[in-house]
Every structure is written in structure tokens, then in C-alpha cells.
UniProtKB/TrEMBL annotation:
<dbReference type="InterPro" id="IPR006860">
    <property type="entry name" value="FecR"/>
</dbReference>
<keyword id="KW-0812">Transmembrane</keyword>
<feature type="transmembrane region" description="Helical">
    <location>
        <begin position="77"/>
        <end position="96"/>
    </location>
</feature>
<dbReference type="Pfam" id="PF04773">
    <property type="entry name" value="FecR"/>
</dbReference>
<feature type="domain" description="FecR protein">
    <location>
        <begin position="176"/>
        <end position="271"/>
    </location>
</feature>
<feature type="domain" description="Protein FecR C-terminal">
    <location>
        <begin position="314"/>
        <end position="381"/>
    </location>
</feature>
<protein>
    <recommendedName>
        <fullName>Iron dicitrate transport regulator FecR</fullName>
    </recommendedName>
</protein>
<keyword id="KW-0472">Membrane</keyword>
<dbReference type="GO" id="GO:0016989">
    <property type="term" value="F:sigma factor antagonist activity"/>
</dbReference>
<dbReference type="InterPro" id="IPR012373">
    <property type="entry name" value="Ferrdict_sens_TM"/>
</dbReference>
<keyword id="KW-1133">Transmembrane helix</keyword>
<dbReference type="Pfam" id="PF16344">
    <property type="entry name" value="FecR_C"/>
</dbReference>
<dbReference type="InterPro" id="IPR032508">
    <property type="entry name" value="FecR_C"/>
</dbReference>
Length: 384
């Protein structure tokens, strides 16, 4: 087996597309990586040896146990959990796995005034009377009762709106849930619609939907699973559009620092209105537009899971340029990003858990050629 075949097979294993036979072969390589029977000549003076063999052998040497069965399980879990960031540079793929190298991150020796940490369930609830409730610092239970609608923080940390038995709501009081940089939140509206907020986002909504429509306003990035109601459409208003649905699953990305507003449909159907233009989306389609270009562009999305990866605890990049990658990281880690030198014109595709600490994050990015330095709450991206 030549070097290209080895790299291709390892790539399939890391992306979880290998056949059972191919997975078994790769795992046997890793199991034997410290043994004398491994044919290391296959890896001599190759990228595979530098990027795979040395990292994995070091990891396994530190983690080895005496129980063969347990070793195999550990290897399997380790590599299945490996985070793969693929840099599309000159048509080639660079694979990397989680390791314990510590030489990548450079930090200040001074006292760190603000430690960069991954985000979490952080949000603020603004009630109709102007009072604010910091949700991540509030105990579970009822938080408010507004015209027959009670607001509850559940044991699982989400926000739930529901009618009391004697609801007499005639006009819903307006509430807003907003997340800071480094925050996310999940809430359930009184009609059963579920809403997930990404970092630096907000949703403004009535506690009770009266009249002939259900209307909310959003900023940032929000994922909806709308409760079906054929006679009362659900309308999402952004700075640039109105999205009309009856019952469906879709994602809205309307960050001000992104070039385009994007609405991606996973299930059902939605109608997008942007200015005097309209578009009807089918599942698997995405509508994109901005204020500078007239019209709505509708495209097919191959990997819908990548669009809502943030909701499921991951960064997932699909042929993204470096600024797009770092904007996501900046929002989630609440860190400022600056560039030291010219920004490389490369595209990146990959997947990283959003719960890794900043040292591990910087290490993972380095494998793709994104070299960073962290100081206080700032990430500096350096050239090679």
C-alpha cells in the first residue's frame, strides 16, 4: 500500500466513511503502533509519519494499559472522537487528531485578566415591565406570571412559557431573550414552538399569540422548530426579511458582520420575503441575500447538519475562508480576533467540538495551518 492510499484510508476513518474492513485495518495499525511488527517503512519521510504516526504513538504510549480488550476500546473511542479539521490547500487534505502536544499555544506570563473559555447556557430575559433576569444565575422554577402565562426555568435549564389554568390573555406581553458572545439558550414558546439561540443573538416575542398570526423578531442566529397551526402562520422578522411558515424546522443566520443573511430549511416549507422579492423554499434549500444586491439566491445544501452544527455542540466549516472560521470562534469564546499580516486565501472544511478549552482549540487550528497566539481575551492569527 503506497503513501497516498494510506492517507486516503486514514482520511476515510477520521471522517467516519470507512467500511468495517477498512476501520479494522486502521485500528490494527494504531494498536500495533508501539510494536515491533509495525512496518514503519511505510511512513518514512512522509507527511503521514509526521502528522499521524508521531502524534498517535506518543498518545498511545501515555494512555496504554495492560488489558488488550480495554486498549482496543480506548483506541476506537479515541479515534472516533478525534476532531478533524481539513484544510483545502492546493487541493490536498490535512488530517489531524486530538493529541496532548502543548507547544502550540503561546500565552502571556502576566496575570490573565480575562480567561478565554468556551461559551455555555448564558442568556438574559427581558420582561414586559423592563425587569431583567440573568437566566444562568437564576434558580429553577417559576420566574414570572404575565397575564395568565407563566415563565418557568426547567431543571434542564431551558425557558418554558405556558398558559395557567385561568388564562385571560387578550394581548401578549412582549418579552426578549438575548444571548451574549459566549452564550446560547433554548426556549419553548407558549404555542409549543422551540427556539435555539446561538451566541450574540436574540428573539423578541409575545407571551401569548393573539390575532391571526404568530410573529417574532430575531437577530444573530436562531434555529426554529415551529409548532403547526394551519390557521395562524408563524412569521419571523429580521432586519432584511420576513419568513412565513405554518409548521417547520429552519435556521436563520442574520448576523450583522456576515455578508449575507441566510435561511436554511430542514423540514416543511417557508416563504421568504426580501423587499419586493419572494422565494419559496423546499427542504434542503437555502435562501441568501444582502442589502446591496437585489433578489434572493436559492441554492441546494448538501449537508444540512453542518448548518445547525452549532445547535448540536460543534463548529462545522464547509469550504469557509479564514475570517468566517474566526468569526464563529470569536462569538463563542467571546474573544477578539486580530490578524498579524496578510490573511491567507485558503478554504477550510472540518468539525470541532465547541466545548474544548482554548488551548486545545488553538492546537487543533494549528494542524490546519491556522497559527494563533492567545493573550488575555485576544486571539492573534499569525502567518506561517
Amino acid at each position: 500500500m503506497n503513501t497516498n492510499e494510506i492517507k486516503y484510508l486514514i482520511g476515510k476513518y477520521n471522517s467516519q466513511t470507512a467500511t468495517p474492513e477498512e476501520k479494522k485495518l486502521v485500528e490494527e495499525w494504531y494498536e500495533r503502533i508501539n510494536g515491533a511488527d509495525l512496518n514503519q517503512n511505510q511512513f518514512e519521510d512522509t507527511e503521514v509519519k509526521k502528522q499521524i504516526f508521531s502524534q498517535v504513538s506518543s498518545r498511545i504510549a501515555n494512555k496504554a494499559t495492560t488489558k488488550t480488550k480495554q486498549i482496543k476500546l480506548n483506541y476506537t473511542l479515541f479515534f472516533k472522537a478525534a476532531v478533524i479539521l481539513i484544510a483545502l490547500i492546493a487541493g490536498s487534505y490535512i488530517y489531524f487528531s486530538k493529541s496532548d502536544r502543548s507547544a502550540v499555544l503561546t500565552t502571556s506570563t502576566k496575570t490573565n485578566k480575562k480567561t478565554i473559555v468556551p461559551g455555555g447556557n448564558n442568556a438574559v430575559l427581558l420582561l414586559a415591565d423592563g425587569s431583567q433576569i440573568i437566566l444562568n444565575k437564576t434558580s429553577d422554577g417559576q420566574l414570572a406570571n404575565q397575564s395568565g402565562v407563566e415563565v418557568i426555568k426547567t431543571k434542564s435549564g431551558e425557558l418554558l412559557y405556558r398558559f395557567t389554568g385561568n388564562s385571560n390573555a387578550k394581548a401578549g406581553a412582549i418579552n426578549t431573550v438575548s444571548t451574549p458572545r459566549g452564550g446560547q439558550y433554548h426556549l419553548i414558546l407558549v404555542d409549543g414552538t422551540e427556539v435555539w439561540l446561538n451566541a450574540s443573538s436574540s428573539v423578541k416575542f409575545p407571551t401569548a399569540f393573539v390575532g391571526n398570526e404568530r410573529k417574532v423578531e430575531v437577530t444573530g442566529e436562531v434555529y426554529f422548530e415551529v409548532a403547526k397551526n394551519k390557521i395562524k402562520p408563524f412569521i419571523v422578522h429580521t432586519d432584511q426579511s420576513d419568513i412565513k411558515v405554518l409548521g417547520t424546522h429552519f435556521n436563520v443566520n442574520t448576523y450583522a458582520d456576515e455578508a449575507y443573511e441566510r435561511t436554511t430549511l430542514l423540514e416543511g416549507s417557508v416563504e421568504i420575503k426580501h423587499g419586493d422579492k419572494k422565494a419559496l423554499l423546499k427542504p434542503g434549500q437555502q435562501a441568501s441575500f444582502n442589502g446591496k444586491v437585489d433578489g434572493i439566491n436559492v441554492s441546494e445544501i448538501e449537508d444540512l447538519e453542518a448548518v445547525i452544527a452549532w445547535k448540536n455542540g460543534y463548529f462545522q466549516f464547509e469550504k469557509s475562508d479564514l475570517p468566517a472560521v474566526m468569526r464563529q470562534i470569536s462569538r463563542w469564546y467571546d474573544a477578539n480576533v486580530i490578524y498579524n499580516g496578510k490573511i491567507p486565501a485558503k478554504q477550510y472544511t472540518g468539525k470541532i467540538p465547541r466545548n474544548v478549552n482554548v488551548a486545545k482549540l488553538i492546537e487543533m487550528l494549528a494542524y490546519s495551518g491556522i497559527h494563533c497566539k492567545v493573550e488575555y481575551n485576544q486571539i492573534t492569527v499569525n502567518p506561517k
